[in-house]
Amino acid sequence: MIPPSNSDKNQNFHRVPWPRSKGGRFHFFFCFALFLALVSGCASIGVRNSNLQLQITPQPVMRGKPALAQINAPLDAQKVTGVVLVTGSPQLIFQKDADKGLWYFYGTIPFSPWVLPGDYKVRVMVYTAQGPPHYVEMKVTLK
Fold first, then answer.
1. 47-142: what fold?
2. Strand 134-142 vs strand 47-48: parallel, antiparallel, or unpaired?
3. Separation CA 63–CA 116 (nearest Å)
4. Which of 19, 32, 73, 97 is found 20 to 30 A from 6 (Cα to Cα)?
5. Average confidence (pLDDT) over 54-81
6. How far is CA 12 from CA 7, 20, 31, 70, in A?
7. Are 82 and 107 in contact (CB under 8 A)?
8. Please, what is the end-to-end C-alpha distance for the chain in angstroms?
9. Nearby residues of 126 by Cβ (< 8 Å), 6 or more positions away
10. How confident is the model at residue 71 (pLDDT cuts 50, 70, 90)?
């Protein structure tokens, strides 16, 4: 780009904010962030697998009491993780039990003012050496 000469009528044309429409910069970045969130979310979900059977006991799950989650994932899976589909939920790392032929997670839901009773969706992901991860979802009631 050639810099403007002193003879140009509009010497400050390069100081006009981009984009020129009101709120355009915010709109552009908002749309870009939304696009990235949608693309990255869809790419990481994996494939729903109806052959995976998730069992969580006891039902309903009680705050402050231990619960057991079991899934019939293949024993040669690299890892099995779970998450409650709410903001800030920690990742639940499942352990392999070769004797019973399943993966399990044993833990306690904390009794705190931030964990409210209600219905939640739990997603368990199974990662294998080849192919995309497979997952199963289950609705869980927390009391």
1. Immunoglobulin-like (2.60.40)
2. parallel
3. 9
4. 19
5. 94
6. 12, 14, 29, 67
7. no
8. 66
9. 49, 52, 71, 73, 74, 77, 80, 103, 133, 134, 135
10. very high
Q: Which residues on neighbouring strands pair with residue 82, listed in sequence order?
A: 92, 124
Check if the beta carbon of residue 128 is closer than 8 Å to that of residue 49: no
The structural domains of the chain, with segments of one domain joined by +, span: 16-45, 47-142
- Concatenating the DSSP letter of every residue in 32-47 gives HHHHHHHHHHHHHH-E
The answer to whether residue 99 scores a pLDDT higher than 60 is yes
Q: Under a CB-based contact definition with an 8 Å cutoff, are residues 69 and 56 in contact?
A: yes
Residue 110 preceded by cis peptide, ω within 30: no
3 in helix, strand or coil? coil
Sign of the dihedral defined by the CA atoms of residues 16, 17, 23, 27, in that order = positive
